[in-house]
Amino acid sequence: MADSLPGAVAEPGRMPVAATAPAAPSVASGSSGESSRPPGRRANKGDTSVWVALLWLGPALVLIFGVVVFPAYELVRAAFSTYSITGLRLGDAGSTNFRNVLSHPLLVTVLTNTMIWVVVVVALTVLVSLALAQFLSKDFFGRKVVRWAIIVPWAASLVITAKLFTLIYDYYYGTLNMVLQGLHITSGPIDFLGDDRWTMPSMILVGIFVSVPFTAYVFVAGLNAIPGDVYEAAKIDGARPWQTYWRITLPLLRPAMVVASVLNIIYVFNSFPIIYTLNDRNPGFGHDTTITFMYKLAFKSQEKDVGMSAAAGILNVLMILVVVAVYLKVTSWREQEES
């Protein structure tokens, strides 16, 4: 064996080991460190990776700065400034705008409307979406067509949807009034958007209509992620359908419910087109939420104060953050209790 391998060293009981060859001399003098480095790669790898990352992230960072950072800076700047009725900045206002918003005579009404709007729309959207997701997760003829049809209200423009419901709610020629009178449920037409008793329920119905598709699809994805073995084990143990749903489906669906609820809270809080379009003809702030309240402060009220509107916008963002934080805290607290 040793004779067949020249330069090998044989030891008793071991395979022969080849002798180490001397290192080849460098091709070019003074470039021994460069010869082992792959071509096209610089010595300072850290600087290269940072610049490459910035090159790829640059467009996104520019977009974030232009769409998020700069408007947020201008909002804060406007909240501490005073403006003329034509929108020209006159100087600093300190905390005057915030004091004016907090002392507004209809602020309590606006906050009450906002709480009712958000809580009812989100709660009913989650309940309806849970039932709809259970239906969509089953196999039935025409399921794809039904899924496509359900996504339309979410994909359509909110302004178009709100305008459509304005025609449906119309006092004289609205479809809803015609149906109700044709079925003899009502003796006369109802002013759904002009009567104080019906304005908020009518807007809530539209809010649920446009929020259900997205929420239902989130729940369908969550249901599809639940393993089928879990249901088979529950069936073998003799669990009833309601027990299976309450003790297996809902707990495993909780992550999807948290995501859908948080997103809906943010969307519904900031839902301007629905409330403004349906409530446009009503004077004052009797049926407004915080998002339309700050718009009217700047353009459609006797104040016409951009500074007050910006201050109301900052308070609205802070309120959203507080509500979401409380919801997440309560949700995590319940999970810790159950675990």
Identify the notable features of this structure and list them briefly.
2 domains; two-stranded antiparallel sheet; mainly alpha; 13 helices; MetI-like fold; 339 residues; globular
Task: Show the helix and strand layout.
Elements: E1 8-9, E2 17-18, H1 32-35, H2 45-79, E3 81-83, E4 89-92, H3 96-102, H4 107-136, H5 143-155, H6 158-168, H7 175-182, H8 196-224, H9 228-236, H10 241-269, H11 272-278, H12 290-299, H13 306-338
Antiparallel strand pairs: 1-2, 3-4
Helix pairs in contact: 2-13, 3-13, 4-8, 4-10, 5-8, 6-11, 8-10, 10-13, 12-13
Explain what the structure shows:
The chain is built from 13 helices and 4 strands. It is mostly helical and 339 residues long. The chain has 2 domains: 35 residues, no CATH class; 234 residues, MetI-like fold (Orthogonal Bundle), CATH 1.10.3720. The strands form 2 sheets. A two-stranded antiparallel sheet has the order 1-2. Strands 3-4 form a two-stranded antiparallel ribbon. 22% of the residues are buried. The N terminus is likely disordered.
Describe the strand arrangement of the main beta sheet, using strand numbers. 1-2
CATH-level-2 architecture of the largest domain:
Orthogonal Bundle
- Annotation field: number of helices: 13
Tell me the count of domains.
Answer: 2
Strand content: under 5%
Class computed from helices, strands and strand pairing = mainly alpha
The sequence of SSEs as H and E is: EEHHEEHHHHHHHHHHH
Radius of gyration: 33 Å
Helix content: 55-70%
The CATH class label of the largest domain is Mainly Alpha
Mean pLDDT: 82
Residue runs with pLDDT of under 50 for 5 or more positions: 1-37
Number of strands: 4
